[in-house]
Amino acid sequence: MHFDDIISKVKECEKKTVAVSVAQDDAVLEAVKAAKERGIADAILVGDETKIREIAKTINMDLSDFEIINEPDMIEASLKAVKLAHDGKADMYMKGLIDSKNFLKSVLDKEVGLRTGGPLSHVCVFDIPGIDRLLFLTDVAFMTYPTLEDKVNIIKNTLPVCKACGVELPKVSPIAAVEVVNPKMPVTVEADELTKMCERGEIEGCIVDGPLSLDLAIDPEAAKHKGATDRKIQGDADVLLFPDIHAGNLVYKAIVHMVSGVKNGCILTGTKVPAILTSRSDTFETKVNSIALAAVVSEEIKKNS
User: Fold this and answer.
1) Any idea what DSSP says for residue 50?
2) Cα–Cα distance between 266 and 209 in angstroms, integer?
3) Are 206 and 155 within 8 A, CB to CB?
4) pLDDT, tens digit, for every residue of 84-128?
5) Coil, helix or strand for 94?
6) Phi, psi of 95, rounded to the nearest 5 degrees
7) Is 172 within 8 Å of 207 (Cβ atoms)?
């Protein structure tokens, strides 16, 4: 499956609605406009209505098809927007012109937020030219130094995303600098433990094989040359589980800025509904792709619940 397939799958689902927190953001409104035009999702715009309408004029956006909830105060706007998702009036929740800290505060709000009782994590889905499948990178933006328990939760949070994208039994590779266990490299020890936990049935719905170096995880030729014929993953990993935010973020940005023709979308997982936490540096297409990704994941969550 590729990103075009995800967008096609969205159109097979019941029409989704995204609640936008502090919607007076030109880049986000452009993405929401495109998502509406492409049949990906409707939107409820929460924020300063005067500013929303001013921006809409500059981008030729017809607001007659959108519900607008006027709330000039940013914090109140975020709480009203997240409450729409909390109450089932929206299928996903998107960050607009509000800083990430306050956006996450609304997600975690005890009264109207999107808590499920477990930790949150971030997953980015990449469609990279030359790779015949989608790659799921986690966590590249939220958890800083995940513990072994955190990594188990990251895997569990990522599985519904994989399934929503057509990967029924994802291969999860805990990435390290080397593919052998070295007691002096704790990352490799934890990767080995995750593998054993999966073998014992403590992590279900996937195949875990680690530690693996990045080349062994994604390149079948590298796996062949290194003689990794006894591994469960031989260059065909679906999920790249990073040891910390530095490794994940560096790989993420290297792909985005150094690989031409790449497509990607990102969401926050472990929430009641998908939360779209994009940055201002993300491209227009990344924002649209993130809405599409959230839409199919929302459908998967709905089916499971």
Assistant:
1) H
2) 24
3) yes
4) 999 999 999 999 999 989 999 999 999 999 999 889 999 999 999
5) strand
6) -75, 130
7) yes
Task: Answer for the pair 238, 200: CB distance below 8 angstroms, yes or no.
Answer: no
Distance separating alpha carbons of residues 132 and 88, to the nearest angstrom: 36
- Measured from the Cβ of residue 15, the count of other Cβ atoms closer than 10 Å reads 12
Handedness of CA 10, 96, 286, 93 (dihedral sign): negative
- Phi first, then psi: give them for residue 260, nearest 5 degrees: -85, 145
The tokens of 240 are what?
């790249």
Single-letter amino acid code for the residue at 66: F
Model pTM score: 0.94
Least-confidence region, from 57-66, 166-175, 190-199, 225-234: 225-234
User: CB–CB of 45/68 below 8 Å?
Assistant: yes
**Alpha helix positions (H), the chain:** 3-10, 26-37, 49-58, 74-86, 100-107, 148-164, 186-199, 214-218, 220-225, 245-258, 284-304
Pairing outcome for strands 92-95 and 239-241: unpaired
Tell me which residue of 295, 297, 291, 274 sits closest to 31, measured CA to CA: 291
- Amino acid present at 116: T
Q: Is there a contact between 176 and 184 (Cβ–Cβ < 8 Å)?
A: no
Beta-ladder partners of 126 = 135, 264
The helix-helix angle for 26-37 and 284-304 (nearest 10°) equals 60
Task: For each of the domains in the chain, give its residue range(s) and CATH number, in order of start.
Answer: 3-116+271-304 (3.40.50.10950), 122-258 (3.40.718.10)
DSSP per-residue string spanning 175-235:
B-SSSS--TT-HHHHHHHHHHHHHHTTSS-SSEE--SB-HHHHH-HHHHHHTT-TTSS-SS
Sheet holding 207-208, edge to edge: 67-70, 41-47, 16-21, 92-95, 275-276, 263-269, 121-127, 135-138, 239-241, 171-174, 207-208
First to last CA, the chain: 25
Collapse the DSSP code of 261 into the 3-class scheme (helix H, G, I; strand E, B; otherwise coil) and give the result: coil
